[in-house]
Amino acid sequence: SRRQPKQNDFYPRCTPRGPAPQSRDTPPKRDTGIASEKEWGINLLDEAVKESGTNEDGSTWYRESGEDLGENGYRCRWARMGGQTHDGSTEWKETWWEKSDWTGYKELGA
Fold first, then answer.
1. SS3 for the chain, per residue?
2. What are residue 106's DSSP bridge partners?
3. How far apart are CA 71 and CA 93, in angstroms?
4. Facing residues of 63 across strands?
5. Can you give the pTM of this predicted structure?
6. Residue 54's CB: how many other CB atoms inside 10 A?
7. Tens-of-pLDDT digits for all 110 residues of the chain?
8. 65: burial class by Cβ within 10 Å (0-12, 13-18, 19+)?
């Protein structure tokens, strides 16, 4: 009698030997010592935001964000924050953006 070959004889790499790799919903955490965007209150995924106010010491602040769209799938999402002291002697501004288009161009900036 002839022995029937088993699939493992021909395809040993095709038989499951352990659990399949699991996909991740979020990237791995890295301890860089730098606060995350979320900790700084930066969220480029929000809808357009435009807020401002005055602090108890008289200093002012603002926060705004938006999205610019253009040809060939161009998209730029941005967020800006800033403020100044009550007497106007000191002012600060910060901007973050992410740009991309259909050609594969990508840019992150601050």
1. CCCCCCHHHHCHHHCCCCCCCCCCCCCCCCCCCCCCHHHHCCCCCCCCEEEEEECCCCCEEEEEEEEEECHHHCEEEEEEEEEECCCCCCEEEEEEEEEECCCCCEEEEC
2. 100
3. 29
4. 51, 81
5. 0.54
6. 11
7. 566 655 555 555 555 556 655 555 665 666 777 676 667 666 655 568 899 999 999 999 999 999 999 888 899 989 999 999 999 999 999 999 999 988 888 899 99
8. buried
Beta bridge partners of 91: 84
Determine the Cα–Cα distance for residues 32 and 60; give it in Å rounded to an integer: 31
The angle subtended at Cα 103 by Cα 97 and Cα 109, nearest 5°, is 15
Contact 101, 72 (CB under 8 A): yes
* Closest listed residue to residue 66, CA positions, set 28, 98, 101: 98
C-alpha to C-alpha distances, 77 to 4, 25, 37, nearest whole angstrom = 62, 22, 14
